[in-house]
Design goal:
seven-stranded mixed sheet, 39% helix
Length: 251
Amino acid sequence: MIYISIPAFNEEKNIGALLEETRKVLDGADLEYRVIVVDDASVDKTGEVLAAFEDKMPLEVVTHEKNLGQGAALRSGLGRILEDADSDDFVVTLDADSAHQPQNILGIYDKLLDGQDVVIASRYRRGGGEWGAPRWRRYLAGICNWSLHICFPIEEVSDYTGSFRGFRMSALRQGLGEGGVDSLKEHGFTVVPEILICMKGRGLSFYEIPLILRYDLKRGQRTKLRVSRVLKATLRLIFRRLVGDRPGRKK
């Protein structure tokens, strides 16, 4: 069984096309799968679009009563999957905004079947890239990923902030430890690199496949990233993981 976890907030213009393409790709590959979408208290018609797909594919919707952020939405999705999944199952996470193309799920799945524990779809691998992203955004992502790689080097990993990934379920449980998703403390986008940091040094294998991030396919309002906010959040994660979690440090 392959589980697909998708956090969504105000994605009425994107989520329908994403689910339809996901259904075509996975049905076409004759895979047994289940999709978990976490609606993070959307105020548009995301919920209506999701309801229309519940009879078209194996879909479960987890709804937050209030907006809790990407970190909480990702934790909710993974937590729900961890409740039911067997150790030999797989999970793939991706975004709801059309930047991640579902056909790449098969490339991730193939490498997991080959025995890799964690497979990341990376914009930094040969053949990967970003289409439609402004230059400042590419530079910002590059700075954050470089900083994370310097502080938390993981062999074969170049894309720490990209959320299009696959995990063997046994590896995810091993990586998160006894605390499960509760071991993840970040509330925003930094939960994405935090997952890899949690899994580092636990004897797991990591592998990357090339990914073209399709920002040009996003519909609706673009995310308004504040450079200072992104940099501060990344530095806070680095500090907390390098210093704040050391045994004996006063809380």
